[in-house]
Design brief:
Elements: H1 18-25, H2 46-55, H3 68-78, E1 85-88, H4 90-102, E2 108-113, H5 118-125, E3 129-134, H6 145-149, E4 157-161, H7 173-182, E5 188-192, E6 214-219, E7 232-235, H8 244-247
Parallel strand pairs: 2-3, 2-4, 4-5, 5-6
Antiparallel strand pairs: 1-7, 6-7
């Protein structure tokens, strides 16, 4: 017996830990700083550490299936309905939920290159196909609606990373608005704001008031220093927020 053909699915290669590299090179891990995964060098808030300690005795039972406390807090933060907040195991979990909700076999997605490999990986896991649009050093990796739409051909999902990793470029809110207007009505524009706290540009969540084809993903891994806890979320339009119950992994967040 063999699994299905996975030859087009390149494995994700995470950044190596300082302890692993130090052991290999015969160095003291305290002398190394790991940069490859963009973890917060300041670590989590002491209040977050305290909260984790307080809840540690409860790990023997499943978490609340609806995780209403966090959902309600995020909904209040972004001024949206709780049904619009899809909590997940990291922001990549939200990417999977959106793939489950949107992609039929052979649907195509459009991803930036260079860019986060998991956009394409998630699409392929869900039997989709991946097309790319380039970001170039010639124009300082500018992200514009015109530049993305020049490579758009009716894909079901278009991914935009702002601020972009690894270049740091942003896609300004008016450009995202123009992109949402420029794609077909059945195309979802996914705005990945994993590094949103590090940019002065306002969040694309505000676009959801006028667009049913925009979703925004965010994470607690970067600015909040909680990469090991795996908490991310998507903010989606109210019109289809109830799809979460049909695509989420039970007890995953």
């Amino acid at each position: 017996m063999q699994p299905r053909d996975l030859s087009s699915n390149a494995p994700y290669v995470p950044g190596r830990g300082a302890e692993e590299v130090a052991r290999e090179l015969g160095l003291d891990p305290d002398d190394l700083v790991k940069l490859s995964s963009n973890e917060n060098p300041f670590g989590p808030s002491p209040k977050a550490v305290e909260a984790i300690r307080d809840t540690a005795p409860d790990v023997g039972v499943y978490p609340k299936a609806s995780h209403t406390d966090l959902t309600d807090a995020l909904a209040a933060e972004w001024d949206v309905a709780p049904e619009q907040v899809w909590v997940s195991a990291g922001a990549d979990g939200s990417l999977d939920y959106l793939s489950r909700a949107m992609l039929d076999p052979d649907d195509r997605v459009l991803v930036p290159t260079p860019g986060f490999a998991y956009y394409g990986m998630s699409a392929r896991y869900h039997h989709g196909e991946v097309n790319e649009y380039p970001l170039s050093a010639d124009d300082d990796f500018a992200q514009t609606a015109e530049g993305i739409l020049a490579h758009y051909d009716g894909e079901r999902i278009v991914y935009v990373t702002t601020p972009h990793n690894p270049t740091g470029s942003v896609c300004p809110l008016p450009e995202l608005d123009a992109l949402a207007e420029g794609v077909d009505e059945d195309t979802l524009v996914v705005v990945d704001e994993a590094y949103g706290e590090f940019a002065a540009e306002p969040s694309a969540v505000s676009l959801l008031a006028d667009h049913e084809n925009v979703a925004v993903t965010r994470t607690f891994s970067k600015a909040y220093g909680l990469a090991g806890v795996r908490i991310g979320y998507a903010v989606v339009p109210e019109a289809w927020g109830d799809a979460y119950a049909r695509v989420n992994t039970p007890f995953a967040a």
